Amino acid sequence: MKHKSSLRSRRPSEAQSAQQHGRSVAYFDLAASFNEAMALHRGGRLVEAEIGYRRILEHQPDHFDSLHLLGVVHHQRGQHAAAVAQIDAALRLNPNSVSAHSNRGSALQALGHLEEALASYGRALALRPDHPEVLFNRGNVLQSLMRPGEALASFDQALALRPDYVDALVNRGGLLQELDRLPEALASYDQALSLRPGHLQALNNRGATLKGLSRLDEAMASYDRAIALKSDYAEAFYNRAILLRELKRFDEAIADHDRAIALKCGQKYLRGSRLHAKMHICDWASLDADAAEVIAAVNDGIPASLPFPFLAIPSSAAEQRRCAELYVADKYPFAGTPLWRGERYTHDRIRIAYLSADFNDHAVAHLTAGLFESHDRSRFETVAISLGEDRRDCMRERLSGAFDRFLDVEAMSAQRIAALVRELEIDIAIDLNGFTKGARSNIFVRRPAPVQVSYLGYPGTLGAYWDYIIADRFVIPEASREHYAEQVVHLPDCFMVNDDKRSISAHTPSRQEVGLPEHGFVFCCFNNSFKITPDVFDIWMRLLRDIEGSVLWLSGGNASAVTNLCRAATARGVAPERLVFAPKLPSLADHLARQRLADLFLDTFLYNAHTTASDALWAGLPVLTCAGTTFANRGAGSLLHAVGLPELVTHCRTDYEGRALQLARDRAQLAAIREKLARNRNTHPLYDTRRFTRHIEAAYTAMWERSQRGEAPASFAVAAID
Description:
This protein is of the alpha/beta class. Helices cover 52% and strands 9% of the residues.
């Protein structure tokens, strides 16, 4: 760093004071004082350095380096506004200082004044275009301003000048990660780690990138390495917890969540993620308090939970909207130009694209396959945009032939997929994922189509960017529309499509084969374990106590949940042997067949059975539900109305328990309901795939017509087509 030549000055007041005390007159050595202040500064002794710089400025107010470095001290102490003012004073003396313009940019960046910071970095680069640190800082600001192309170019320029610039490699990797260019991000992190093997952020981010590439073992190893190097690395514990949860190693995931919390990890969504992991294993200790804490945080504008887990706790529709809006604002802010800018397409047919990560052997695919095959190809051109892995299963093969075009885009970035949707001139883009696993929401953020629709995969609002949500009058009553950011489209029968070609194995196993009693009453619930809460379990255990010889048949894929549920049954006076756990079967057809052995499906409260209820009813198994106030906890009620069994929809927990007890005691009444279900399955709308297709096509047509007229999206209802 340059500074002025050594100067000596004397202050009469100091000399006179010294003489009065019998001392010799001292001379102020500016150069020595400046070097001392700089040494203190470099050693991190900021308060002492500030005193040193100020002492120099008392002697020489126009000492540029002291003015500038005093500003740097302010910045390092978090006094960013004071830093800007101080550096401005220095720049008035020397407007051609690259480092002063750069440090001014850093202080402005810390204040959140990004455009001004960018201008400061621009002035520094005008003076010295080959300054890698300034290019690096400029890249960071451009990234924050959501100008990713320019940010990447700035990082690349810095690295062209300094190929070993590790921090630039790491931040470049982070930007590429955000752009879904995961292989390139991984290469950037690997290069950084080849230069600095112990770089914690590179290891942590590399783990997240590998997870995104479904290279889970390598992702785990990267997190493990980061934690081995820094045993209190809270962010790595949190990210490893997310991975462990995805691997269904829930106990380990909870331990890592707890460690991250103990380390005061500031990561967003941490509390909600921990709660969701606990709910997966039915660990209900402090459940009410934990849920209340997460809900309160969301109400305070804190992104404490991802939207999907938030559906399964006692949150209202209004709170679920708040959670979704916070998530979208945090993860998917968009300041760029939309890809679709009001153009009117003039196709012979309405061009619709279904985007999903689940075009495989997955619940969404099993529901929608018949819809895709039933579309009126004279009026609609259908395109599948497959976001997920091709598992080469029978469902994938079936779906590949169900569209006019089937596009596998798994390896593409969200930006490229969005551009593809625009290039294809898609009229209506339908998001079948919402905020579920494999979602690529940042495609829709870029507005690639005139009409964007949320359907089926996510039972709640997505908060922004989507024009419509497809529902029915039961799951989203008129009074609840305000809790949805999208315009609500009411289909006449049921929101859920069903495939009337779903096969059920001809062979039904015996009760003995699946571990059920030969003659006892079989209650069942095949919902995911995170949907089971203590309030509904209390009712189930009372039913087992009241109905002699009865059992409760549950999904058994989660060993920790099995252990905890058996323990909870014992605590409620029920022998754990009366809980029977069904292993996951490789074939849906076999799973449907075994459901014939049960007597009554008992639904959960906060998040109903959706596809699971459809499966049960298709197999001939009556479902008893209790309707709540959100889309997530009204889904089963919609299905029951559409299959002509409204008598199985209760509206309070007392009635739910009473109705279950009544049906378990009155076998004749239950048999009559089963016979009614068997008749209605073929005569009522729920499983009429072609009727549903005509209704959703009418919805698409209405959306398209509004768009063609240049009208804003608006809620509407589709009239029944008989």
